[in-house]
Structures are given as C-alpha cells and as structure tokens.
Specification:
Elements (H helix, E strand, L loop, with lengths): L1 E5 L3 H13 L3 E5 L2 H7 L4 E6 L8 H11 L4 E5 L4 H9 L4 E4 L4 H17 L9 E4 L2 E4 L4 E4 L2 E3 L3 H11 L5 E3 H9 L7 H15 L5 E4 L3 E4 L3
Parallel strand pairs: 1-2, 1-3, 3-4, 4-5
Antiparallel strand pairs: 6-7, 7-8, 8-9, 10-12, 11-12
Length: about 220
C-alpha cells in the first residue's frame, strides 16, 4: 500500500516514513502542497496531510486533491482546535489526528479509512450493492431494503443515503452532500437536507443508522 506523506518538516517525514515502512507500507514524501497535488496517482491509497505547508494552505490542498480523487485523506497537524477539525472535514478529509500523535494510532486510522474505501459503494447507477446493519442498498436499481422489506425512498432521499453509503463510518460534511445531491454549493439547502435525513430515518425505522455530527454533517453508522 502506497502512502503519500505531505509534510514540510523533513525530520518528521523521515521518522513517519520509517515507521510506516516497518508496518509494511510503501511511502512517498513531498514537502509542499503543489507537489502533493501532482503526486496523487492511481497507486496512492492514502494521504497523510499536514496543514502548515510553505506554499499552499493544507486545507486548500485537501480540497484540490478531493476535487480529482476519492483517495482517503488523514490530516495530521498541530492545529488542535475544533474549528480546524471542522474545516478539515469540510475540505474533504476523512480523518484527523493532532500532533504529537502516537504513530500506532495513525496507522490504525490509515487502516480504517483504507478499509472503508475498499468496501465503499460506487456512485449510484453503477452495478454494486452494500449492506449495513440490516439495510441493503442496490445502487444499480436504486432499491433499499430494511430487514428484507422494500423501503420507498424519494429520489433525493435515495441520493442522500447513497452519498453517505460511499463513506460508511466516516463523517460526510453537509456541503459535500448538498453539492452531490443538489448540484450546488448553496447552503440554503441545509434545512431541506435535515428534513430529508429525518424522513430517511423514519422510513428505515432505524434512527441510529444515520448519526448527526453537530456542526459538520452526517455519518452512516455500521459497516
């Protein structure tokens, strides 16, 4: 598995690379945002991204990588405040660790996000399906079953569930859901999103399946 390390401190990058190689990973290190964007390729399976880069802010790097790739991104930074975490998730990150961190925790998080990426469902319309805690989603036929019973979702409700199902166990920011379902960045759809999520929970008769992460977005539990 190839891990892209984006870190401007060479000593930190070298130490992290050594630990990851010992754990069986292949690593590639870059020290700035421009190089990071160029380095993401089909063989990149995860990105460990520092926010304090010399040329481009790490959040912008995260957004630009996410704009061209679904590769799992873990932000690793000294910015420990909640606002930074929220901004990171909104920018498209899948997880967040605060420096100084235990490398064993980082490796566990890498394993978690890459495992989710491997089992995650493709976009609606592709031939695949997913089952999470008794809820079965057939993307090709836009069919949802709950404990074997067919559930009638509206097109928007299905699209929202499908977006969340691509990242099971990972927080999906509200703006990403709105962008993918409504095709706009206008936050005025936030209230409509809340109403649709409430309807999905009610129809599936499983309120705990979709967790609200206050101030950030939603997470499909299980998986």
């Amino acid at each position: 598995m190839k891990i892209l390390i984006v870190e401007d401190d060479a000593r930190v990058a070298e130490a992290l690379s050594a630990y990851l190689r010992q754990a069986g990973y292949t690593t590639h290190w870059v020290g700035d945002g421009t190089s990071a964007i160029d380095a993401v390729g089909a063989d990149t399976e995860a990105v460990v991204l520092d926010l304090g880069l010399p040329d481009i802010d790490g959040l912008d790097v995260c957004r630009r990588i996410r704009g061209v790739s679904n590769v799992p991104i873990i932000i690793a930074t000294a910015r420990s405040n909640v606002e930074s975490r929220i901004k990171g998730l909104h920018a498209g990150a899948d997880d967040f660790v605060v420096k100084p961190y235990d490398v064993r925790e980082l490796i566990a998080r890498i394993e978690a996000v890459t495992r989710r990426a491997r089992t995650t469902a493709p976009a609606p319309g592709e031939s695949s399906n997913l089952e999470i805690d008794g809820t079965y989603i057939d993307f090709a036929n836009r069919l949802v079953l709950s404990d074997g019973v067919s559930i009638e979702l509206t097109p928007k409700e299905f699209d929202i569930l499908a977006v969340l199902a691509r990242y099971p166990g990972v927080v999906t920011p509200r703006d990403r859901i709105i962008r993918e379902v409504w095709g706009t960045d206008w936050t005025g759809f936030s209230r409509s999103l809340e109403v649709h999520v409430a309807s999905i929970r009610r129809k599936l008769n499983c309120p705990a399946l979709i967790a609200t992460v206050r101030g950030v977005g939603y997470r499909l539990m299980g998986g």
